[in-house]
Design brief:
Blueprint lengths: L7 E5 L9 H16 L17 H11 L6 H21 L8 H10 L3 E6 L4 H10 L8 E3 L12 H10 L6 E5 L2 H10 L2 E5 L13 E3 L7 H9 L3
Parallel strand pairs: 1-2, 1-4, 2-3, 4-5, 5-6
Length: 231
């Protein structure tokens, strides 16, 4: 891998980091459980153990709580229906980017110090809909999705591929995440990680190198200091 002198990498997760998708994910999934399995009363909290790990893990988290044993075929069908419902909701209720997201991206891309990537466990279709809704200029960035990897978080493959595509050593990259498994994956890849408390508590994200309440708290100076402190 090339390690371009003076350059750093900034890697954004999508769900719960770029836009407030977790409420929509939960709504789509709750509707799916009621429609496909006749299970009513599923709550957003039931999906927490699957946060950031891809659609299968997200659905299985609630299925286990409700005592459902899903076959592979049922799981594939469930995640397909969930995605259809998610996209339909997004068409009716566009999601803006969280405050500070676009500003940090634009600063990082224009100051000549960073290369920027999107790396998400979501499918390309689903994540692209979110990025379009949030008006993220992802065509100017490296873009890696769950469709491009074999192993989902907490495995480091997603962030390893993002760093490789950026041509920046993982040790010179910062990942922005919102879920414990994402923090674990970032560290396993060799990256630094900033966690934002959009989807869960600071306590559950405490293994991150830095925890913030919103991305507006992060500057490029923050990122550089985080990286160079261990160089």
């Amino acid at each position: 891998m090339a390690n371009l002198c003076g350059l750093y990498g900034l890697i954004f997760d999508v769900d719960g980091v770029i836009a407030d998708t977790e409420a929509v994910n939960a709504t789509a999934s709750i509707e799916m459980f009621a429609e496909m399995f006749g299970v009513h009363g599923v709550r957003r909290a039931d999906f927490e153990m699957g946060l950031g790990r891809g659609a299968h893990a997200y659905v299985l988290a609630a299925a286990r709580i409700w005592g459902l044993e899903l076959t592979d075929e049922q799981l594939d069908a469930a995640t397909g229906v969930r995605q259809e419902k998610f996209l339909k909701i997004l068409q009716q209720q566009p999601l803006p980017a969280f405050p500070g997201v676009l500003e940090l991206m634009n600063t990082a891309m224009t100051d000549g110090t960073f290369r920027v990537a999107i790396a998400t466990s979501s499918t390309r279709e689903k994540s692209q809909a979110v990025l379009n809704s949030a008006q993220v200029p992802y065509e100017k960035m490296v873009y890696i999705t769950g469709s491009d990897v074999e192993n989902k978080k907490p495995h480091p493959e997603l962030f390893q591929k993002a760093a490789a595509a950026l041509e920046i050593a993982p040790q010179r990259c910062v990942v922005i995440e919102d879920a414990p498994d994402g923090v674990q994956a970032a560290h396993a890849a060799g990256c630094k990680c900033i966690a934002v408390t959009n989807s869960t508590t600071a306590e559950k994200l405490s293994s991150a190198d830095l925890v913030v309440a919103n991305i507006g708290e992060i500057t490029t100076d923050t990122l550089i200091q985080l990286i160079t402190n261990i160089d």
